[in-house]
Amino acid sequence: MAASGKGEEEGSGDRAGTGLEPEVWRLAHPRHGMLEVAVGGPAQLRTVDPGYPRGKRKVDDDTVDSEPAATDPGPDATDDGMPTNPGYVLLRDGGPVARARQIGNHKVSILDDPPGLGRFTGNLSVLSGPRVQMSSSAFATAVRQVTFREGNEVVHFDPPPGSSAEARLEEIAASPWKRVVYPVAAGVGKSGWAIAMIVLIPVIGRLLSPILDWIAERMPDIDIPWPDISLPRVPWPDISLPSINLPEVNLPGWVEFLIEYSKVWVPLLVGVAIAVVAVRHSRTSRRIKKAWQAEQAGENEQAEPTARTEWREQSGRGEAPGRSD
Question: Is the pLDDT of residue 98 over 90?
Answer without folding.
Answer: yes
